[in-house]
Design goal:
Layout (H helix, E strand, L loop, with lengths): L38 H23 L3 H27 L13 H4 L2 H8 L7 H26 L5 H17 L6
Helix pairs in contact: 1-2, 1-5, 1-6, 2-5
Length: 179
């Protein structure tokens, strides 16, 4: 207890009946602040986002909604959320937390960016799903370009363009399944 290595910085003892706890600093969420990415993590996030969206679109085209939804919500959207976190980090000099599961996005993003983010959630309708994907791609592009410019990273525009061409091709060669 003397070293305090066992606690995170948000620890706040409510009651010390026997007076055994050392004098602790005030609670702080600094352990949970958005961390500055390096070029490798930035590129990896971008590539994962685009690659997974291609899989999502294939799932929609094949009428495999469970696969498409799971891939979208567990692989693609987390990359969008990571980029939004870095975007917020860049704007705040990486001095705050987005909260558990990004619960503070509403307060930290612009009204327009938050509105776009919310519209990336989707239901089981393929038209709505594709609209959510397009919105996610636009929001990702805007914020990733901002993060890349601020941190001196190269945005992988060719990867994005390849993903967009692939999505357009899939959509032009298939008819969305009827729910």
């Amino acid at each position: 207890m003397e070293r305090g290595a066992w606690r995170n910085k948000l620890f706040l003892p409510l009651l010390d009946k026997v007076g055994c706890l050392p004098n602790l600093p005030s609670p702080s969420d600094e352990d949970f602040h958005v961390k500055r990415p390096d070029q490798r993590h930035f590129q990896g996030c971008c590539k994962e986002f685009f690659w997974c969206l291609c899989d999502v679109e294939k799932g929609i085209a094949r009428d495999e909604l469970p696969f498409a939804m799971t891939t979208y919500h567990t692989l693609a959207r987390p990359m969008l959320e990571q980029m939004l976190s870095w975007y917020i980090g860049v704007q705040t000099d990486f001095s705050l937390s987005c909260g558990k599961l990004n619960k503070y996005f509403k307060n930290l993003l612009s009204t327009e960016d938050y509105r776009c983010f919310v519209s990336t959630y989707t239901d089981g309708d393929c038209v709505h799903f594709r609209r959510a994907i397009d919105t996610a791609m636009g929001l990702f592009h805007r914020t990733a370009c901002g993060v890349g410019a601020a941190l001196g990273f190269v945005y992988p525009l060719k990867d994005e363009e390849g993903c967009a061409r692939y999505l357009a091709w899939i959509r032009s060669t298939t008819t969305p399944p009827i729910p």
